[in-house]
Amino acid sequence: MAAASPRFPVFDVAVVGGGLVGSAVAYGLRDHAGTIAVLDEGDIALRASRGNFGLVWLQSKGYGLGTYSRWTLNSTRMWARLAARLAQETGIDVALEQKGGLTPLMGDYEVEARLAWVQTLMAQPGVEPYEWKLLDHHQAASLVPGLGPDVTGAIWTPHDGIVNPLKLLRAFHTAFSTSGVEYLPHHGVTAIARQPGGEFALTTPQGDIRARKIVLAGGLRNGDLGRMVGIDLPMAPQRGQILVLERTRRLLDTPMVTLRQNDEGSWLVGDSQEDAGYAEQVTTLPVLATLADRAVRTLPALRDVRAVRAWSALRVRAKDGFPVYEQSPTQPGAFIVTCHSGVTLAATHALHLAPMIAAGALSPDLAPFSTRRFHVQTH
Q1: 3-state class of 184 per DSSP?
Q2: Which of 314, 357, 312 is nearest to 336 (CA)?
Q3: Helix orientation angle between 165-179 and 66-90, rounded to the nearest 10 degrees
Q4: Separation CA 326–CA 350 (nearest Å)
Q5: pLDDT score recorded for residue 375
Q6: Cα separation, 295 vs 260, whole angstroms
Q7: Segments of the chain with pLDDT less than 70
Q8: Measured between alpha carbons, how far is 345 from 277 in angstroms, rounded to an integer?
Q9: Cα(146)–Cα(305) distance, rounded to whole angstroms?
Q10: Within the chain, where are the H helices?
Q11: What structural domains and CATH numbers belong to the chain?
Q12: What are the helix (H) ranges across 155-282?
């Protein structure tokens, strides 16, 4: 094990991972813990935080696990508070717009299938009922002028919206610099060991960092990191591709799950889902062509808007797609936080989850998110 870094004392909490999930937790810990460090790999890391779509989204969350829907609803309700607090502390407007969102549907089959899907989701145990509507074409077009005739209908909820994820990440890190949180890039963790005194030693290329509590928020690396503290987390990353269109005047005030316009006027087209494991993050013409075709059918005015770039990124997903929140059963004080909705859940991570971690125990309400669900014995 490398020697302890002489520059730092034993931190009260070390958060492993400086993306949106780790940053949100670290931001929330400031009011409840003493000294905090954020250990980050650096820009070579596989960062979902810089490759995502930037949705604050409820209506697709929780199918198969009603608790996830409730947890997401809680976060959407807290988002305005988080955005206002970040703006006050850092001067950065994260461009939150929460005017409702749409899932566009093309043809009777998509309408019927999605309606049945939403009704099943809402009937699950653990779901807190919330407002949603099935809109016909005319009703959807009242929210999206110029909506294409191929859009038969849409699912709408008032809780959905968008945020600028790059500005959000910058705001968190700016808050670190003004509130004493130590942000340590190039400190990728390669080993974790419990010390005789009870604290954790985290081995990094820059020396050991020691902390009384640790939060594993390393995204795609959380499977490996979890095993270092006795947590068996099966990961199943999923690749998504995004097409970026040039800036235009503001045309879209109601975002869609597949299409949004950023605060500065550029467009994002996305929602592809590929089970590619940890494969190289590449873009492929067939997927991008499918995205572009559906975007133009949704909003025909985009036919005259040029594509300027494209990228792909890996979604951080546990095997079943749901979040994981757990304290190690064998190494108390070691927590793991994994999800593929780091933007949507940023508010509840900062304002709800972080105080639990600081207090040393997760609420029983979060028990369904434990890794125990992957290891239940069946007979």
Answers
A1: strand
A2: 357
A3: 60
A4: 16
A5: 86
A6: 10
A7: 1-7, 43-51, 280, 377-379
A8: 23
A9: 14
A10: 20-29, 66-90, 107-122, 137-143, 165-179, 222-227, 285-298, 346-348, 354-359
A11: 10-51+166-234+320-373 (3.50.50.60), 101-157 (no CATH), 235-318 (3.30.9.10)
A12: 165-179, 222-227
pLDDT at 363: 97
352-368 pLDDT, tens per residue? 999 999 999 999 999 99
Give the pLDDT confidence score for residue 2 in this predicted structure. 45
The CA distance from 356 to 337, in Å, is 12
**Nearest in space to 20 (alpha carbons), one of 59, 47, 56:** 47
pTM of the model: 0.94
Gap between the Cα atoms of 356 and 367, Å rounded: 13
- Strands 307-315, 238-245: pairing is antiparallel
Interacting residues of 2 by C-beta distance below 8 A, sequence separation 6+: 203, 204, 205, 207, 208
- Model pLDDT, residue 300: 97
Residue 294, both tokens: 């559906």
Cβ atoms within 10 Å of 113's Cβ, excluding its own: 12
* Lookup: tokens for 317: 């997903």
Residue 237, pLDDT score: 87
